[in-house]
Design brief:
The protein contains 9 helices and 6 strands. With 263 residues, it is of the alpha/beta class. The chain has one domain. The strands form 2 sheets. A 4-stranded parallel beta sheet has the order 4-3-5-6. A two-stranded antiparallel ribbon has the order 1-2.
Length: 263
């Protein structure tokens, strides 16, 4: 990532601070402003740019492993292990034929940059920071910095996961309310007539809508919109991402793929 800017460090920081949305990005948080984007060497950039395809394959393999295990085509213990502690309602949802092939359309790895290279600690299916990252890229690009994805790459990428749906509903739970300001900013920047942000009690879905699920599966009892939303998606009247698949949100997936018994 290049960091040569046309503005001085002081001017860059001032530009970025002045670019902050009036309503902020994360509720209740203040920011310290860096005078340049975080620098990355070419080798690390190349690795990051290749990760998407690799992590998609990982999700595809995990999805196949779970379903084949649940169906008896593979040993039963992987699906039994991944189902442990889950309510039957979640298990029924993630085994539904309607969601069988569905995978999260946003893949966000938590990555540590170490002396030995990149280390991934988890894949987050319901990540905060999409709007924040889009804003950071735009703000620093506006100051003359070269950023991965360019000034609008995150906005364009997020908009692209919903296909040609006429309405895109971003449903945010109270538990995830910290991130509601960034999702509102994101919707406004992409298309405020098409994208809208709603709370956990939203009931205004229409056939053909696309939904971005910004609530955790462990929080479903507190999200009134969840049951009707998933029922409508199961009937193929709307689309929803990420799909209701708790096993894809398990950190233990990494342990499974390190298990030599699965080689």
């Amino acid at each position: 990532m290049g960091t040569d800017t046309q503005l001085s460090p002081e001017q860059t920081a001032q530009h970025v601070r002045q670019s902050l949305p009036a309503d902020g990005l994360f509720a209740g948080h203040q920011w310290r402003i860096a005078t340049r984007p975080f620098p990355l060497d070419k080798k690390t950039v190349k690795q990051l740019e290749q990760l998407g395809r690799v992590l998609l394959k990982f999700y595809q393999a995990a999805n196949m492993l779970y379903h084949w295990s649940a169906e008896g085509r593979l040993p039963a213990w992987p699906s039994a292990w991944l189902d442990r502690g889950k309510p039957q309602s979640i298990i029924d949802l993630q085994r539904s034929k309607a969601f069988r092939a569905e995978l999260p359309r946003v893949i966000r790895p938590d990555i540590l940059l170490t002396d030995d290279g990149l280390k991934i600690t988890e894949l987050d299916s319901v990540p905060g920071g999409i709007g924040l990252t889009a804003w950071l890229n735009r703000a620093y690009a506006g100051a003359g910095a070269e950023v991965l994805g360019g000034a609008t790459g995150m906005l364009e990428g997020f908009a692209g996961i919903f296909g040609d749906a006429a309405n895109v509903r971003l449903v945010v739970s109270d538990e995830s309310a910290t991130y509601k300001p960034e999702m509102k900013w994101l919707a406004e920047q992409i298309d405020p007539d098409r994208f809208s942000v709603h709370g956990q009690g939203f009931t205004g879905l229409s056939d053909g809508d696309a939904v971005y699920r910004f609530f955790e599966l462990f929080d479903l009892p507190n999200v009134p919109a969840a049951d009707p939303l998933f029922a409508t998606a199961a009937d193929k009247r709307i689309s929803v991402t990420p799909p209701p698949k708790a096993f894809l949100e398990e950190k233990m997936l990494f342990a499974l793929f390190h298990n030599r018994n699965l080689a």
